Amino acid sequence: MKAMGETQEEYYRGVRMVPYDLVKELALALAGVGILALAVSAILSSPDVPPVTVAAWAQNDPVDFATTATGELAGSTTSAGYGNPYNTNGSGQAWGPIAPQQWFGTRIPIDSASTFVIQPLQRAAVGNADLGTALNTWQSASSDQQGKWTDAYTKSLPNATVKDGKVTVPDGDYGPLPVMMSNLLGIAQTGGLDGLLMVNGRFYQTDYTPALLFMGDGSYLSGLAEQSNLLGDQWGMMNETGRYPGQTWLWLYTMWYQVPPFTSDTGFLGINASNADLGIIILMTLLTAALALVPLIPILRDIPRWVPIHRLIWRGYYSPKARP
Amino acid sequence: MDAAEPIPEQPSSWTVRTRRAIDRHLPMDHLLPVRQPYYVGSWVYVFGVITIAALVWVVVSGVVLAFMGPQWWHDSRVGRFFNSLHFWSVQLFFIFMVLHLWGQYFMAGWRHGRAATWAIGVVIFGISILTAFTGYLSQQNFDSQFIAVNAKDAMNGAGVGAFFNVLNFGQMYGLHIMLLPIGVTFLVVVHIVMVRARGVVKPIDPEGGARS
Lengths: 324, 212
Description:
Number of helices of chain B: 8
Mean pLDDT of chain A: 94
Low-confidence stretches of chain A: none
Low-confidence stretches of chain B: none
Radius of gyration of chain B: 22 Å
Structural class of chain A: mainly alpha
Structural class of chain B: mainly alpha
CATH architecture of the largest domain in chain B: Up-down Bundle
Oligomer: heterodimer
Strand content of chain B: under 5%
Distance between the termini of chain B: 60 Å
């Protein structure tokens, strides 16, 4: 059937027309949706669990906080070895020659040890001689010596005791770390580190990258998320806190994170758990393009003709009695 | 004083050409029709207009939230209510948009020169998902925090994170309340104009042809 360039009058020639009130239909839809949305809002409200602060993390799980901060100094956290766009310490995700994480470089520079620990402590060291001395000791030590201290301190933290919010580890050779960590913990518990992580040299701040990366490196935030089924392997990208629907429209995207090869260490055709994000983004891009191009894709465009759902939608048309 | 001579329309005028093209392809009788083919009788046809109605409520509640600011939607009862209204309007918007999409799929709504209308609809769906995603990141609550921490890996893995930083509230909020809604609204207008210009598609011919 020729349709391009055809006017609507030509297209509908011979088709019986019936009265229609588009504006009334839109007005009724506006009213109906409005009443439904207002009613559901009044009855069910919406999720709004307060955000986690660095202070709450340091108060509620000081050992995890100290372990994470020590890991930032040791370069063993996720952020420290992430790669682009934060640093060059990791290779990032790639699928053969497709490595977009590397292509655009370090556009959001984050030096985990400096950003999350050293710089905040330097700002807090003013008027604190013990902390100033500890920082000098740390910075003048060789990286080999720093590594020995962080290694020993990290191993001691699982045996740490917590009293009045303070973390005490068994005796050992930790260099200046106990002083640095107790000060960082104290600053964090008062809420000071929430602010210090946002310092950008300007007055206004809207970028929470350092604070969120630091909290993401610990297990406190992810532990809370796990309780709300927000982790990636819990369909977390489409869930939200409470008994609310979340981003259900992300179901297909989220589903891939639950199935092989995206959950597998060995994978398939080079796609596995280590580059699952890249693989799933590529797959979803292809699927979205396919959806947009359905009119051009054989089989996909023919399914509606084969599946008789259209006969329900247009049952009046297919009824012999109703035909003009 | 003599009345001024009427100036004849110049056929070469861009304005005249544009006006004639609009008159031919989208006369008011098509834009706001008072009649439609008899086979347009299913509830499936209503999903599109309900989606538009939900979008109106999304935009209206979003404008109020943007005007009053983030503290308001957390700290005041009225603010929380408008936040809920925005939230549920978005849920309804997606429910009916997906129903509209599936309805149009099984009606093969792209036939007879309507492939671009279908494709733009899919693009609207995609941009709407991005808009909702930036909305979830802009809530300034625990959900926002963890979605940001979780989603950064996908964005970074795809190379997008270098430019689209989900941990940057300012960037996400700006995209959510300005650029992305303008994109959705503009494309919805284009989608509607295309639908009205061509009219609704005829039923699938029993003799074949769900194709364009």
